[in-house]
Amino acid sequence: MPDTPAHATAPTPAQATVPAPVREAVHTQTVPGFGTVRVLPLDPHADAPTVHAWVREERAAFWGMNGLTEDQVAEIYAHLDTLDTHHAYLLEKDGEPAGLLQTYEPEADRVGECYEVRPGDIGVHLLLAPAASGAPIAGWSSGLLSAVTSYVLRGLDRRRVVVDPDVDNEKAIARFLKQGFVAGEAVVLPEIDLPDVQLPEKHAQLAFLTREVAFPGDA
């Protein structure tokens, strides 16, 4: 969840021909003092310019997609869209793109090799964009994280969220801990080299947030 602002770029003619997707939010939440956050299914091609603008920045180095082209980004998320165990979403705040959320079943992901997966677990990857105005907004990260945790724990009826930021991504780790996550072990996620997926080895800091901690009133 980097902090440095990304720089918006004007779409190329090819990008401009991609129609805006028509889609329903899977989760809408008004966060007091922050705004309305919507969680929308990611459209791999229509959202590619926005996502590429975020992931190519140095601030997103830990996301691991700095050197990719817009077409490559679209291909990755098009492949993700074919999976039943992994899903991608665009976060909006008051109608403006605000972040990228990926959820996954830990037992179907390499992180499942590094800790004891419990029933009701769900994995999350999160890349938060800067405020659309370019100026810092108080509570930006916590507001978006509040909506994300509500969606994955309550909306998807899960019991625990697991995250695996890079061990050197101190800002992301600090934000998760501030949100109530509890640090787990530092682990090494194994390299994946498959025809459709290539991921290098990753030194990660696991952290967990239970539904009981996030929402004490829930049964």
In brief:
This protein is of the alpha+beta class and 219 residues long. It has helices at residues 13-16, 48-55, 70-80, 140-155, 170-178, 211-214, and strands spanning 27-31, 35-41, 86-93, 96-104, 121-128, 160-163, 182-189, 192-193, 198-199, 202-210.
Written overview of the protein:
It is built from 6 helices and 10 strands; from the N terminus they run αββααβββαβαββββα. The radius of gyration is 17 Å and the shape is globular. Helix 2 packs across helix 3 (70-80). Mean pLDDT is 88; it is low at 1-16. By secondary structure, the chain is an alpha+beta fold. Strand 8 (192-193) and strand 9 form a beta hairpin. The strands form 2 sheets. The protein has an 8-stranded mixed sheet, with helices on both faces. The longest helix is centred in the C-terminal third of the chain and has 16 residues, at 140-155.
Q: Helix count, per DSSP?
A: 6
Q: Please give the share of residues in helix.
A: 10-25%
Sheet having the most strands: 8 strands, mixed
Nearest-integer average pLDDT = 88
Strand content: 25-35%
